[in-house]
Structures are given as C-alpha cells and as structure tokens.
What does this fold into?
Amino acid sequence: MSDGTPADLFFDAAIGLLHRVRDEEAGAISAAGTLLADTVTAGGRLFAFGAGHSSLAAQDVVYRAGGLALMNLLAVPGVVGVDVTPATLGSALERVDGLASAVLGTSPLRAGDALVIISLSGRNALPVEMALSARALGVKVIGVTSVAYAAQTTSRHSSGTFLKDHCDIVLDSKIAVGDAELALDTIPAPFAPASTVVTTALMQAVMATTAATLADRGIEPPLLRSGNVDGGHEWNGRVMAEYGDRIFYRH
It folds into this structure.
C-alpha cells in the first residue's frame, strides 16, 4: 500500500470493484432481475438467504424503503448475522450437513418461487445444500458469490461442489479470497473487507432491474415507501394488503 490514506485506498478499492461488477456482471444482473420479474408475474414468491455477514445483503432487500415488498428473508436460526453467542457458532452451523434441508422443509418455499442465496465463498455445506435442495423443489436459484473461491479453495460440502455449481444464475462479486482489500507492512494480516459494499450493491441492482422490468410489462412493481415520509404507511398498507399472501415477514 503506498500513496493515499487507508480510507482513501479502501474507497478506491471498493469503487474499483463496483465498476467491475457493473461492467462484467451486467448480463447476469439483467438475467437475475428478469427471473425475479418472471416469478412475480407468475404469482411466485421471492426469498433471500445469507449466512453470517452475507446475511446483511439479504436483509437489506427485505422490508426495505424503495424495495420490493415481496422479498422475504429465509432465516436459519443461529446463522443470520452475528447475534448468536459465541459468534463462532454461526460459522460452525454453516458447515453442518442436513441443516439446509431441514430449514427448507419447514419453510414456505415451493415450486415456482425464487431464492437468492448469498455466500461469499460458496464453499460451505449450508449454501451448497440450500441451492441443491431448493432446485429439487422446483425453486429457481440465483447465487451471489465470489467465483474465485471455487478456483482457490476446496469445497466443504460432501459433493465437492460450490454454490455456483447449483444456480440458475450466478452473480460474481469479484471479491478476492480472504475478503480484505488493504495491506500494510506494519500489520501482519490483510484488512478492510469490501464484500458487504459490493454484494449489497449487486442485490440492489437486481432489485432495480426487477422493478423496471415489471413496469415495462405494465405491472406496477410492489414497492415499499419509507414510513418516515407523509403517506408512507398508508402506501405500504395498500401494497401489503394486495400482496399479503406472498409476504411472510408480517406473520
């Protein structure tokens, strides 16, 4: 690391990654947005899943001002975020075989729905099994991951495969293995992860594409408004009433 403050260099790295995903993943983003719009049009439901810090990008599109009301969080107890104690338990649960199948078996997911699975490495048993099991149910799967991990690490799933191998569409976040953008001679480990910034941007780009695609088809996108603007609660009440059978975070 040379010229510029660490903050400047981090912003530069993050902006560089955002430029890359905008340019290199444009086709996949368009395809993912179209898939979600197709699902909405056909009466299907939308879900997002992520484990640990990958769950942040999933949560960001659920019950979100300016976002699609139909995005639901598929939650796995002990895995969503770092709210368990010890926090390392969440990482351990990601490696447990059978957990994803148990969760899907008690979830509302059904054939014709769409599921976005977010996993930076895509190597742990949970996201791989989640994708395999969801597709076996007839669910369309969009994977958001760093494809580099498949070339530079080994899978932790019994099949030896990665999340990217079991998706209808893959969005590559371009994050380097290890998820740290900066290095200093005075610090023994790389630091400053950018995966949350990039993955969240990818998700919002897909959401924007979905909304615009629905509008192009003459369908009003079921968008939520901020509850902190006049009329926001009334607007959201109307949307939730209209699409209540496809919104699961209310119950």
Notes: The beta strands are 46-50, 71-73, 114-118, 140-145, 169-172. The mean pLDDT is 93. DSSP finds nine helices and five strands in the chain.
